[in-house]
Amino acid sequence: MDRVDESTEGVVAVSRRVLRAEVRASSVGIGLVLAVMLPLFRLWELRPRVPILYRGDAVLTMGAFKNMLLTGWYSSSELLGVPYGQDLRDFPAVGDLLHLMVSWALVMVTRDPALAFNVFFLASFLTVFLGAFTGCRMLAVGQCSSVVVGVLYTFLPYHVLHGPGHLFLSSYGVVPLWVALAVRQMGDRPLVASLPKLRRPRDWMPWIRQPSHLAATVIVLLGSTTGIYYATFMVFTLLVVGAIAGLARVDRRRVAVAFALAAVAAAALLAQFVPTWMLHRQVGSNSEIVDRGLRNIEYYSLKLSDLVLPVAGHRVDALADLRDESLELVLRGEGAEAIGLVGLVGLGILAIVAAVRLVCGRVGHRHGALALVASSAFAMGTVGGGATVVGVFGFTFLRAWGRISVVIAFCALVAVGIGLDRLRSRVGSRGAVLVGVVLMIGVLDTNPGFPFVDFDRTAGAWASDRLVVEQVEELFGEGAQVFQLPVVPFPEHPPVHGMVDYDHLRGYLHSDTLGWSYGGVKGRASDWQKRLEGLPASELATALAGAGFEALWVDRLGFGPELIEIEAALGPPELVSPDGRVTIHDLRPLADELLVASGSAEVARAAAALLEPVTVALGEGFHGPEFDAGRAFSWAPEQAEIRLRNPMDEVRTVHLRFVAATAVEGSWALEVHAPRGVITHEMPSSGLAIDVVIEVPPGETVLRLRTDAPRLDTTDPRDIRFRVLEPTVVPAS
Length: 733
Hints:
Layout: H1 2-41, H2 57-71, E1 76-77, E2 86-87, H3 97-110, H4 113-138, H5 143-154, H6 157-162, H7 175-186, H8 204-209, H9 211-223, H10 228-249, H11 252-271, H12 274-283, H13 287-290, H14 294-299, H15 304-308, H16 317-325, H17 340-359, H18 365-381, H19 386-392, H20 405-427, H21 430-446, H22 455-476, E3 481-485, E4 515-516, H23 537-546, E5 551-555, H24 563-570, E6 575-576, E7 582-586, H25 588-598, H26 600-611, E8 615-618, E9 626-628, E10 631-636, E11 639-646, E12 652-662, E13 667-674, E14 677-684, E15 688-696, E16 699-707, E17 722-731
Parallel strand pairs: 3-4, 3-5
Antiparallel strand pairs: 1-2, 5-7, 6-7, 8-11, 9-10, 10-17, 11-16, 12-15, 12-17, 13-14, 13-16
Helix pairs in contact: 1-4, 1-5, 2-3, 2-4, 3-4, 4-5, 4-7, 5-20, 5-21, 7-9, 7-10, 7-18, 9-11, 10-11, 10-18, 17-18, 17-20, 17-21, 18-20, 20-21, 23-25, 25-26
């Protein structure tokens, strides 16, 4: 008995020593990460309660954080999209459950969306390093080399260039864990060698209690809750390595294990879609959101040039110029896929070693498995690759398959780590110098020389918005409703003059009480705002005043030369932001005049007609929305549907207006099957403005469009015959 106790104590002591060594090594790596972050982001200039980035998707993310603060979760707010509120189940952060939970905790602790945003982003550098370090150690890479790989992987251009703008995307620390899991499953020592028998539940708990099995399960669950892209990449990778390992080793258990892990990941991912599915069962799917189009997959796919060319803005002018030459390419993608010089060396090592082993009949081991994972990832994400194929069959929800570059980058850097281990074993103490040189070259090579963020400019814009919002609250009182101009659909809309997407959310970040017109999801009730487009400023202000809005927020960057006429019609503003960008107009006097002139009953009727309009949506048959010269359109095959929805309890007569154009030259028939008959138009390729008068009963009315136009002869696999541009509904006079 004493010998058993001594043996157990010895194992515990060894485990503690190993753990302490791992902690020391990872602590050194964290210190290096912080040392790089300090000058890269000029952290001494950081203002903790001012966001690092205050534009684009960063504002969208902080808006979700603000929702958490006010409502308890990210998906809804009564203060956005007034009077209907915001419901993000149409535009969900599916696959990011763990990220959302961490964000919620940060928001609850800090009570400040901007501070929580900054903490999450800066902490992502630590979590990515720890994930890469752990992944390397899972693959038996030495501690010193694992630190190097971890630091280089942390400061990939992918991380820095996506940055806080794509906050959750920048937190890719789980990717190395499931890549290491996949590689281990192909080797002689897989984490999971077999599965428990499904018909014997009593075997499940002993199976899951085994450390390696528990680790594999946790990795899969982490991978399915830290980003829908990474979860999809993980499922794909597990399926590939399972099939290949099963064939190479003639072992059905390898296939079963990999497929089971992929099934667990897929189930965990799909479970996060449940709120969206419930919404769609209640009110139908939203065609404005769900279909992003096959062309987007090609545009954002991975190109070999993206991987091998230097990062944009490289410190060496000649290399920066080399990257600039690639900007002439038609398919430019996101521009964050470069893996750097060290990564390229790693890819070369993988290719050479895997090829030599294949020729010598010694397939497998780490290099072979890493090469398989990297090559399959490239085949899936490249132009015309697997992503395009699955897109042809309708899977277009994910478009930026170039992001699979983080998988390739880790495989390449692990190969470098293995090479460093072997070099250090041969050169001894001189290896430390070599490691330092590789680390320095890698970090400087993959991070641009230009300043990452202008803290002073961001702080100035933040302070200006905060002050004007405080003035609005003081002038109009708590609960006031603010209508924002220009009208911008939410989410994902191209820039409007000087405004970028989500700029209208900036005001919401500074108030807990004001209601804002922006933020209702397009394709739903918030589409009532489309009816205001094109109205003279004076008529628009009168209509909004009657609908209950007290203030008009005008973002002057969202207008061109017409701004002069609009401001002249609206008169002098009540408030102007310190930076001059935003003007505030008081609508309350107009509301009082309306009540006197028309009476409360007529004002209420007009408000109901404005806020509860007949809405239009492109239905079955239409492909996803696209943009050309700032105009939205959707391609369609021979037949397609336009759906009208009347939310009121009375029949309403409206004009349905849209432009239809064929995809090929010539003039072809377009039949509009309306409730009262078929109307036929001659539709040219240059476009025909169509105006159909329709009586719309309560509920949904479907109009079917049919054309005899031939299919466009193109490489696009979709059936493209005609397109519809910007359908609108206008009440009949």
